[in-house]
Amino acid sequence: MTDPIRWEPVHAFVGRLLAGRHTTITAGTEEWIALPDDDPAKTIAVLTAGSRWCLEQQLDQIDQRRAATKDAAVDIAQARDWSDVARRVRARDQFRRDNPDLRRKKVS
Questions:
Q1: Residue 13's domain spans which residues?
Q2: Could you give the C-alpha distances from 102 to 36, 57, 98, in angstroms and in order?
Q3: Are 35 and 29 in contact (CB under 8 A)?
């Protein structure tokens, strides 16, 4: 398994590197391709795209963990005989109603 990708450090680094500069040009578009290689907007677009990729990877990792957790919870829930659980709870509650003197008491 590879190390998880964390967007926050990348975002902070790109923010420091760009120092408030930004562009509306998207890396890989015809407009971006037409820019000369020494145009700062071309570099900014690539840095922004890289940062966005990291964010998307981190969000995918979060989704994968949530899906795995949900699958595990469903497996656990389906492994249980819930009619038996309900029967035991009803029996316990009935026993407590029938035997109020056997209830636990707080000790001061």
A1: 7-99
A2: 86, 57, 9
A3: no
